[in-house]
UniProtKB/TrEMBL annotation, chains A, B:
<dbReference type="InterPro" id="IPR017045">
    <property type="entry name" value="Malt_Pase/Glycosyl_Hdrlase"/>
</dbReference>
<dbReference type="Pfam" id="PF03633">
    <property type="entry name" value="Glyco_hydro_65C"/>
</dbReference>
<dbReference type="GO" id="GO:0005975">
    <property type="term" value="P:carbohydrate metabolic process"/>
</dbReference>
<feature type="domain" description="Glycoside hydrolase family 65 N-terminal">
    <location>
        <begin position="13"/>
        <end position="266"/>
    </location>
</feature>
<dbReference type="InterPro" id="IPR005196">
    <property type="entry name" value="Glyco_hydro_65_N"/>
</dbReference>
<feature type="active site" description="Proton donor">
    <location>
        <position position="487"/>
    </location>
</feature>
<dbReference type="InterPro" id="IPR037018">
    <property type="entry name" value="GH65_N"/>
</dbReference>
<feature type="binding site">
    <location>
        <begin position="357"/>
        <end position="358"/>
    </location>
    <ligand>
        <name>substrate</name>
    </ligand>
</feature>
<feature type="binding site">
    <location>
        <begin position="599"/>
        <end position="600"/>
    </location>
    <ligand>
        <name>substrate</name>
    </ligand>
</feature>
<dbReference type="GO" id="GO:0016757">
    <property type="term" value="F:glycosyltransferase activity"/>
</dbReference>
<feature type="domain" description="Glycoside hydrolase family 65 C-terminal">
    <location>
        <begin position="696"/>
        <end position="757"/>
    </location>
</feature>
<dbReference type="GO" id="GO:0004553">
    <property type="term" value="F:hydrolase activity, hydrolyzing O-glycosyl compounds"/>
</dbReference>
<feature type="domain" description="Glycoside hydrolase family 65 central catalytic">
    <location>
        <begin position="322"/>
        <end position="687"/>
    </location>
</feature>
<dbReference type="Pfam" id="PF03636">
    <property type="entry name" value="Glyco_hydro_65N"/>
</dbReference>
<dbReference type="InterPro" id="IPR011013">
    <property type="entry name" value="Gal_mutarotase_sf_dom"/>
</dbReference>
<dbReference type="InterPro" id="IPR012341">
    <property type="entry name" value="6hp_glycosidase-like_sf"/>
</dbReference>
<dbReference type="InterPro" id="IPR005194">
    <property type="entry name" value="Glyco_hydro_65_C"/>
</dbReference>
Amino acid sequence: MKQYLKEDAWSIIEEGFDPANHEISESIFSIGNGYMGQRANFEERYGGSSLQGSYMAGVYYPDKTRVGWWKNGYPEYFAKVLNSTNWIGIDVWVDGAALDLAACEVKDFIRELNMKEGWLSRRFTAVLEGGKEIAVEAKRFVSIVRHEIGAVRYTVTPLNFSGELRFMPYLDGDVKNKDSNYEEKFWVEVEKKAAAGLSYLTVKTKKLDFHVTSAMAFDVLKNGQALELSQVFSEREKYVAAEAAVQAGQGEAVTLYKYVANVTSRDHGLGALIEAGTKSLLAAKEAGFDVLLREQAEAWAEKWKTSDIIIEGDVSAQQAIRFNIFQLNQTYSGDDDRLNIGPKGFTGEKYGGSTYWDTEAYCVPFYLSTADSGIARNLLIYRYKHLEKAKENARKLGFSKGALYPMVTMNGEECHNEWEITFEEIHRNGAIAYAIFNYVNYTGDKAYLSQYGFEVLAEISRFWEERVNFSAAKGKYVILGVTGPNEYENNVNNNWYTNRIAVWTLEYTLEVLNDLKNNEPGHYEALAGKLNLQDEEAQKWRHIIDNMYYPYDEERGVFLQQDGYLDKEIVPVNELAPEHLPLNQNWSWDRILRSCYIKQADVLQGLYFLGDRYDLETKKRNFDFYEPITVHESSLSPCLHAIIACELGYQEKAYEMYLRTARLDLDNYNNDTEDGCHITSMAGTWMSIVQGFGGLRVQGGELVLHPFIPSHWKSFSFKVMFRGSRLQVNVTENSIIVVNETDVPAAIRIYDQSYTVGAMGEVQAQRSAPAALS
Amino acid sequence: MKQYLKEDAWSIIEEGFDPANHEISESIFSIGNGYMGQRANFEERYGGSSLQGSYMAGVYYPDKTRVGWWKNGYPEYFAKVLNSTNWIGIDVWVDGAALDLAACEVKDFIRELNMKEGWLSRRFTAVLEGGKEIAVEAKRFVSIVRHEIGAVRYTVTPLNFSGELRFMPYLDGDVKNKDSNYEEKFWVEVEKKAAAGLSYLTVKTKKLDFHVTSAMAFDVLKNGQALELSQVFSEREKYVAAEAAVQAGQGEAVTLYKYVANVTSRDHGLGALIEAGTKSLLAAKEAGFDVLLREQAEAWAEKWKTSDIIIEGDVSAQQAIRFNIFQLNQTYSGDDDRLNIGPKGFTGEKYGGSTYWDTEAYCVPFYLSTADSGIARNLLIYRYKHLEKAKENARKLGFSKGALYPMVTMNGEECHNEWEITFEEIHRNGAIAYAIFNYVNYTGDKAYLSQYGFEVLAEISRFWEERVNFSAAKGKYVILGVTGPNEYENNVNNNWYTNRIAVWTLEYTLEVLNDLKNNEPGHYEALAGKLNLQDEEAQKWRHIIDNMYYPYDEERGVFLQQDGYLDKEIVPVNELAPEHLPLNQNWSWDRILRSCYIKQADVLQGLYFLGDRYDLETKKRNFDFYEPITVHESSLSPCLHAIIACELGYQEKAYEMYLRTARLDLDNYNNDTEDGCHITSMAGTWMSIVQGFGGLRVQGGELVLHPFIPSHWKSFSFKVMFRGSRLQVNVTENSIIVVNETDVPAAIRIYDQSYTVGAMGEVQAQRSAPAALS
């Protein structure tokens, strides 16, 4: 936990330079545009601790896996998003001395991430050897309009002397991943040129043959006047640079504009990369920094129009939620269905930038509500495209049919290797099925089912069909040897959530199947043929639905997380001595496993997903039982608890849970922000407000709201895109106002009252007291 | 499975050279003396596939551990027995051409491991370039009398030409471990000298500072006459050699005798190593090869006197059991309580040469019966000396008291890192306690308990006390999250064997405690003080004993391997399609885990250890239930099944089980003999005959026999050391004859009849028909 950032409604601001915070700031002040991303590394060289990170979405490396004891079925590699060519770099010398903030006095340092307009800036005064002072101002962004373009404006002003300023903008592909398993470098050089006008560098990955071409051009101005400078060019392996020197008088501002285009073989033929990069680059340079920046601000304004949340009366909360929305929108733009959302986005290497079930469980709801439905749809298409790989994965594990999606993946292949997770955390299949339901339920886009969704559902159902077995002892179907969402239990039998989501998948698949059969017989026939669907399969699914075993405690009236759960000693977390927490840093794994403590929502994950199938009393009994023994050591945990707490009217608990994620990275709550930001859990924070405090649900094609407001907030409002309309929901202590910002009328329900918000219309309602269950 | 060795009662013989078998033979023909060991690598260079292996007992390396995903509590290193200085090497040139069996024609190759006398020999004719033929004869051994000494006799005879023979005996410390985790070499040079008379090399390990000095001297004879030859010496890093050339006429035999002493810093001060090595070496050279060999044969005759098993009517079985006894005696000599028995002994690198519970469960019974009781006692002392480390290990895993012995260890510290084994296969603690009982029961040496045993028992009991928890749901104590002996289930609850052996430990500890209290109050007081033993502890242990939960199936009357076992689909192994077997090569780990299939005896391990507490009907029900679903994919599995099958009168099953281990390595049954021989499971084969076919038990201070004889054996006999006497037990179809070879009378029971076999006396009994239960 570390609070050093200034509170501000629209910006993240760091005042004063403390090298101890630098790597944390490098994560927090990251910029990205869904196509590429960049940690907040300094442009000029920096001798202190730093994690250099330039990432190109979808450009990854199958790093040789590391494992102690091999198990059959483990994947051969762990995919990792690549640290790519450093394109921001500008070495700076002042009268021959290199500028390096680790080697000089730094005054008046201020760093700002402007979330409203989407740029990063930095200002400081450096006191160099001999007392020479320079003022530096740097601003950069990656364009969300021209996604291959990044631009930097870098200004140096001698404050108390006149002298030579030398700049060396460069492209450096000789970079490595900090998390390389065998200290390997992943890039080799293909081609380069350093020359007047434009320099470029093409590198490719040692495996998979991803090519990235970075092209750069730059201008230097003094006091706003462009200079014609003689340049010195240098090249070395995977590196090109240009160097130019300027004589600057005291108080004269010298500005370097660096424009870079990064293009990859994912989008261009190998022979066309340099041309594509050059074209993009020259167009951007032609437009110029200020135009590009204006485009950027306008495009961000559009994003905020559909996704902003406004909190009145709590700047800290306001800043936090905007930071989360901003990072989510920087990470995934939804225009490329080959991409997904790594748990750290473009802010670090951890988790390899791969796809987890976080996407379906947390991110899909965010994009569904805050952007055009095509964005979330592309996240679904991503999995559809991986269906064949998921079938192969199931075969590899010995299943004769069906699909098991990977726990961690880049291209559809599994790349995690802990047997208890890789092979056993199969509930992920349920979340992927659920996302299809969620999407269709939210958007009403039923055509998705016949086009893509049903195939995925059917193959997942086939997996469940084969994965269950009939227990003669219980006279029921059971699912043995799984790990549920609570990864603090491994290889358990009959994890309630897994059993439940498996049966739910079968139910939904049958529902869709029957719907298609009855309403789209042509589509149905085609799909049945393609899938070679047998009547007996549907019968078997029905039989499993009707005969699944669910562990349940009659006495307490709670679903049991797994068969043996009640054999554990159950002691609430608040009775544990504080030095035991967090458990994952203080306890051996076996101790954690046999303890009652829960890492993240498990039974409650089911009660969240299938919320309309369980009454409040049931939710309350389970929440009251499980929440006190939950340690929330996954960043994905508190948000779900916040949402259910809201439903139960547990306002204080809800707000406590909300606080645990809201400023997770800004306040470095888990002491790990230097590794990158918790991007996917940011969607959870958004959910806490919109689904929790706002009580937003979609039921029967209606948008349902059931808001409450944390006691010290004056008001909060959020945007919701819903079936063509865009609504702003404003909640105060006494009122709820829904404004329709579009011409499309929307059906909504507030508490138990239904309304239609007409084109550009507004609806007002009284805010009710919360449900009082306790 | 590969059968290429000739059957012989006293020797292992390979006729003809097939490079494809060479690494298997390198394992099988290994020689050792408990202090050092040597794979059957060739003396001369060999360009084909080979696993070079020279091992010094107790000289190990803490290799940086390899793990995919770190868990709290994992050890930092994996200890591995070191491949040490190659001391057997003699490069040979014939008229300038190097002798290399991978590069010439080989005729009349014969390799012999003479188990009666303890040596390895090899003869062959090599046809070199130009058709020059030489006859080569090599014989070597490591002395079990002078344990630091190895000797080689190497004779070359030109058969169809006269020419120059050049020999270069050397010491090469520039060796590596094949299983080095990071391709590292573990040795650095300390000192060396290559000179007339004597050369030496001292190397030390990069970590832990083990020093090994090897000193060599040699003689060359032609036609039996010693030659004075000029020598050329060479040195390079970690390497010394001497070179001598001899002109040999056709038919003239030139013999090189190479003597080596290997001494280590485990036994000598660092400053005294060279002197110690020199002294040993010169004494050996002075004695000469023939004297050393005679000493060796005589010493092996003594070993066979106490351990031989004779099988009449089955040479294959005779050879196999002698091979097993021979290898066990080569591996562990019992005179150094810092040493133990690696699963591969000195025959390979696999399992790191570390100590497993194999020692207590399998090896202790062998040494108890076939050698002086001090030998087995030293295996117990080994664990006693590790008690403090075992307590530290328990603390590390979060226990406030008690001791958890490591699953895999060299010096008492854990060095395995799979959580499901390292942290959860805690039944090993039970086997270590059981070995104490076994030793005292067998030898009657009750003094061991007050001196060493009770401390270990008490600390293990304390561990169990804290490791159980009271299940409110069951109203019983439970043990959650364990892996039993069947490693094909992980992280299960209430593994019957673990629960049972835990309670047995508590019972036995209390029995010993009360016995000490009543009969050795002085010792008891001292121990209670040392251990700070509290009265409540004994009360707690009693409470656990009286209230432990054991999973049980009323319907079948069988103990359940774990709580959820009956939820599995139970299909006998013989109904599995053969291509699925072995499961560990064909199934993913999760599939194995949720299957019913059992790797090795689990419930039956308990019924074996605690055999006198369960009636035959109970054993039969459990055997009938579990054996058909056991895949015996551990080499330790079949022997226990053989023993219980014998008890139940299942003669065919017993013999089938016996066959699965008897020639495991000789016939390369598991296709892994090239990695080394299955040394610890060899003790299991011995148990199959002595405890299985012989029915040997010790009950109430009496040796009990209950023999049967496999149908096609004429007779079998085995030796048993028992409380000062040495008995030979001879079993034929109709009779049992027990001969006392000592002056100490022995009380024995044959079937239900008690006898005393007087000094040098004999007892005869009729052999009964087997119990017919089925």
